[in-house]
Amino acid sequence: MAISTALWCFALVVGLLSLTPGLDTALILRTSALGRHRRAWGVVLGIQTGTLLWGAFTSLGVTALLTASHLAYTALRWAGAAYLVWMGARMLRDTFRREPVPETDDSVLTTGTDSIGGGWRQGTLTNLLNPKMGAFYVAVLPQFIPPGTSHLTMGLLLTSVHILIGLLWSAALIGFAHVLHGLLRKPGARRLLDRITGTVVGLFGIRLALGD
User: Fold this and answer.
1) Per-position b or e across 41-56, b if 16+ CB within 10 A of its CB
2) How far apart are alpha carbons 109 and 30 in whole angstroms?
3) Could you point out which of 35, 60, 159, 190 has its C-alpha 20 to 30 Å from the C-alpha of 2?
4) Which tens digits make up the pLDDT trace of 82-109?
5) What b/e readout covers 139-170, taking b as 16+ CB neighbours within 10 angstroms?
């Protein structure tokens, strides 16, 4: 398989994966729709940081050790599940504790927690604590590395394709969420969004814990 063919084929696979609604999509949409645009981009950069690390680990053979070790895989799976359930539960809890906000007061959407650093930490943790990302890279990435090429160099090149597609799709999600921002000026609408997102995140955590 030629390098260019491998890149295009891999781009098709990860492109379809990116378009599939999932945890990353829910986090990006929720954060951006609430008007926290810097934090939303922080989440995006954190997710892509995790993708880069998974790609690098796979190219170096580290994730093969993870998937070969049942104990290590299970420990990471439970850690990821606990983090997602905690994050979902906190979102749901906050919707019942939050004080009513005047409809004309938009300050809560643009101050306080709207930081790139906070979003980056959330995105990175969410990605790295998902062992299925590691399993995906171990199973898929080597299939697109042509014989005779450097595993590390080609692996990082393929991972860069994944990151580029992820950034483009995330930009589209943030743009779409910007349209929803006007609909979320009412506190009730924001609470509803948080309850939906919190439920989705929690269910992902439970699903991960059950090993589905």
Assistant:
1) bbbbbbbbbbbbbbbb
2) 12
3) 60
4) 877 887 888 788 778 655 444 333 333 3
5) ebbbebbeeeeeeeebbbbbbebbbebbbebb
